[in-house]
Amino acid sequence: MPDQEPNIHPTRSLLTPDGTTAFIDVEMIPVVRALWSAGLTTVGCCQDSGEYAEAARNSKPDREPTGQAGYVEYYRGWAWLKMPVPDATALTNALAETPFRRAVTVRWQKGSWRIFVPVVHDEESGMQLAPYAQIYLPCDQLKDLSEAVSKPSFEVAGF
Question: Which residue among 7, 12, 77, 114 has the highest number of C-beta atoms inside a 10 angstrom radius?
Fold first, then answer.
């Protein structure tokens, strides 16, 4: 049986653009739907990454903890999106032309997003950038983000 992580946030089943079903945290649904409508792909999401990491840690005390020391505290109140790197890049470039400009272009300021592309090992190619970006944003920006991406004037280049 696979090692299942706890599902601590309420979810709803949504039909994805490719016709499959995905369970999405309810507070993420407006953002995910807006991103899909803009032609962007999401691979994963969580409405509060810190809460989730704490629950995952507590659910299996005998294994290596999810998140390192300080992760739970730091990311409590931060939503998480996992997107293909080209989609994450297109999204942040488009958001740089909206009131989200500071959040996506200025690093390490209050309200600024944290965007990471991990380095992973592939047996054939060695070390390389992962195909997916990890985007962390303050939960209090979710409503404004879904509204910004849903505006008719919002345009994502190449999508």
Answer: 114
Backbone angles phi, psi at 130, to 5 degrees: -65, 155
In terms of Cα–Cα distance, which of 66, 62, 64 is closest to 6? 66
Q: How far apart are CA 151 and CA 48, in angstroms?
A: 25
Q: In degrees rounded to 5, what are phi and psi of residue 32?
A: -60, -45
**What digits encode the pLDDT tens for the residues 29-56?**
999 999 999 999 999 999 998 888 887 7
Q: Are 28 and 45 in contact (CB under 8 A)?
A: yes
46 — phi, psi (to 5°)?
-155, 135
- 89: tokens are 């890049």
pTM, two decimals, is 0.89
CA–CA dist 119, 100 (Å, integer):
27
What length is written for the chain? 159
DSSP letter, residue 98: S
Distance CA 113, CA 103 (A): 6
